[in-house]
Amino acid sequence: MNIEEAGTVLSDADLLVTEAEVEASIARMAGEITNKFAKANPILICVMNGGLIFSGQLLTKLVFPLEVDYIHATRYGHETSGAGLNWLVKPQLELKGRTVLLLDDILDEGVTLAAIADYCRQQGAAEVSMAVLVEKLHQRKVKPGMRADFTGIEIGDRFLFGYGLDYKGYWRNAPGIYAVKGL
């Protein structure tokens, strides 16, 4: 994709969730997460790269003791469909006996998040929860009925970008949640 094609993708896209609506969802989630984890001494793990923007904005609203780490495992790269999971970076903090909250941009089919949650449990995490900015509503989850513990926005089954979600490597920085025209 070149810069002109990337510009066309944004100009043709459907804005589904405004920046203000995204920010309100993150603030609501921060309250829910605070209620559950304020006394748990959790480790929050950002799933890179998609979870970066969501995590950064959420973390500033969580005013209680916590530790932050990250993990980089991907199925997509710059493609629009996934293959096998590619582990690039694993968490550096000791997870044994700890409460872990995974932070990611989206729960789509859940292959990546399920594998990361399983990894955390294998490392001895006492509890593993998931917080996602967007959860797609469809029946193709890797585990039937799979849901995030904390969800900002629920959206139908379209190809999304913005606020951390990308389209072929572009537009993670788009201010809102957009759907690619025709997808």
Strand and helix layout:
Blueprint: H1 3-12, E1 14-18, H2 19-37, E2 43-48, H3 51-59, E3 67-74, E4 86-89, E5 99-107, H4 111-122, E6 127-136, E7 150-155, E8 160-161, E9 176-179
Parallel strand pairs: 2-3, 2-5, 5-6, 6-7
Antiparallel strand pairs: 1-9, 3-4, 8-9
Helix pairs in contact: 2-3
Tell me the β content.
25-35%
Q: What is the CATH T-level topology? A: Rossmann fold
| Share of helical residues | 25-40%
Note the overall shape: globular
Helix and strand string, N-terminal first?
HEHEHEEEHEEEE
Q: Please, what is the average pLDDT? A: 92
- So what's the CATH class? Alpha Beta
**Domains counted in the coordinates: how many?**
1
Gyration radius (Cα, Å) is: 16 Å
What are its keywords?
single chain, 183 residues, alpha/beta, Rossmann fold, six-stranded mixed β-sheet, three-stranded antiparallel β-sheet, 4 helices, 30% strand
